[in-house]
Amino acid sequence: MKNIRAKDIIPVIADMCIEANHYLSLDMKERLDKAVESEESDIGKKILCQLQENLDIADKEKIPICQDTGMAVFFVDIGQDLHITDGLLSDAINEGVRKGYQEGYLRKSVVGDPIERVNTKDNTPAVIHYNIVAGDNLKITLAPKGFGSENMSKIFMLKPADGIEGVKNSILTAVREAGPNACPPMVVGVGIGGTFEKSALMAKEALTRNLNERSSIQWVKNLEEEMLEKINLLGIGPGGLGGTTTALAVNINTYATHIAGLPVAVNICCHVNRHVTRIM
Amino acid sequence: MEQRINTPITSDKISSLKSGDYCYITGEIFVARDAAHKRMSEALDKGQSLPIEIENACIYYMGPSPAREGRPIGSAGPTTASRMDKYAPRLLDLGLKAMIGKGKRSQEVIDAIVRNKAVYFAAVGGAGALLSKCIKTSEVITYDDLGAEAIRKLYVEDFPVIVVIDSQGNNLYETAIEKYKKI
């Protein structure tokens, strides 16, 4: 059995917080580069170029890509042969967030209670999703989530009879209503199936998948491609000011569901689709 | 067209701004977002005066990340303006002339913009590092207990924005997408 000390996880988490908020993954940058080439609107093209310049400045001058450095969302895969010693894993993750957001000059955007709304001043607590897997590795993915786009996300509890057309309409409805509020060009994460909460979790996790990787299920892959094309025909464009680049990708995850249901969750992310993964 | 704007923005200048114009703002602007707006609204409810000179003011809806040493501010892009829709008409009626944010506004806000001959600009959402380079000074002037949500006064130079809703009520978010909308 492999052991990892809780305190050794803290600096790794802190580094991840800082990295995620200053650099986007290569697949995101490639999609933006392609969009600059294909965008038909002049103002849209200008905005996309500003987004590229913004990424350069963030990298070179160590200024967060976006001032909304997000609520820290974690997906943690824990190998069942792994043992975390000398403390709780959740405490270590929160301590890492505290350290990373302080040392990285990241904005503290979390309030401790949804109604009383007093800022916790250290961006904790994080939202942590655990998954037990085979082996003895600890795989941690951090996706800091800004709320401009989070607020525009939706869940639709469709009827089985609504079928694939109902799913398509749900995705288009969510994107159309999000419009300029979600800082397009967006990345659209979709969860189809499962239960109410499972669909939302799949939609969130779909946002962390490489944008060049399509689903291994044929109908899902087709749907991802078709929806990207359709979303880009909505006209919303970069910044919501009109154009042909409304989304950079659509990532869809699916799961078994109940005979009576067809849940569809649409989690929208802005063009600052941040995520980093570490394996210990 | 491109326009250069100095603050405080004059009524003549506002009348000349048309939905879709690309503008560069230079001068002093205030920063306030959700919690500061709630507090200003509560102050007005109690018959107290506002902590900022609202007449002819420009408010930027923003909450910056912390500044590194030697810099005036951290990342500083716009936040979603619709969350301030509940408070904006009242401030516009008191003399607020310009708002900078991102995203749609309610009909009540659009009506108040037209009624008061004001303007709503959008800055590019998610370009906080780029926009921070146009901010030359930043000072917390009140509600400092709100942290990133405190009211600030900025001095900006050539801060890039686009006129979304002009003083006649034309709305770029409605008109601009028509040309590219295929479904």
Structure characteristics:
heterodimer, A: 280 residues, alpha/beta, Dihydrodipicolinate Reductase, domain 2, 2 domains, 4-stranded mixed beta sheet, 8 helices, 10 strands, 39% helix, 25% strand, B: 183 residues, fumarase, 5-stranded mixed barrel, 6 helices, 7 strands, 27% strand
Descriptive overview:
The complex is a heterodimer of chains A (280) and B (183). By secondary structure, chain A is an alpha/beta fold. Chain A has 2 domains: 2-20 and 65-144, 2-Layer Sandwich (Dihydrodipicolinate Reductase, domain 2), CATH 3.30.360; 148-274, no CATH class. Helices cover 39% and strands 25% of the residues of chain A. Chain A contains 8 helices and 10 strands. Chain A has helices at residues 6-22, 26-38, 42-61, 89-103, 147-150, 163-178, 196-206, 218-231; strands spanning 2-5, 71-79, 82-85, 127-133, 138-145, 154-158, 186-194, 247-257, 262-269, 276-279. In chain A, the strands form 3 sheets. A 4-stranded mixed beta sheet of chain A has the order 4-2-5-10. Chain A has a 4-stranded mixed beta sheet with strand order 6-9-7-8. A two-stranded parallel sheet of chain A has the order 1-3. In chain A, α1 packs across α4 (89-103), α2 runs antiparallel to α3 and α6 (163-178) packs parallel to α8 (218-231). The longest helix of chain A is centred in the first third of the chain and has 20 residues, at 42-61. With 183 residues, chain B is an alpha/beta fold. Helices cover 23% and strands 27% of the residues of chain B. Chain B is built from 6 helices and 7 strands; from the N terminus they run βαβαβαβαβαββα. The longest helix of chain B has 12 residues, at 34-45. The mean pLDDT of chain B is 97. Chains A and B meet through α3 of A and α5 and β7 of B.
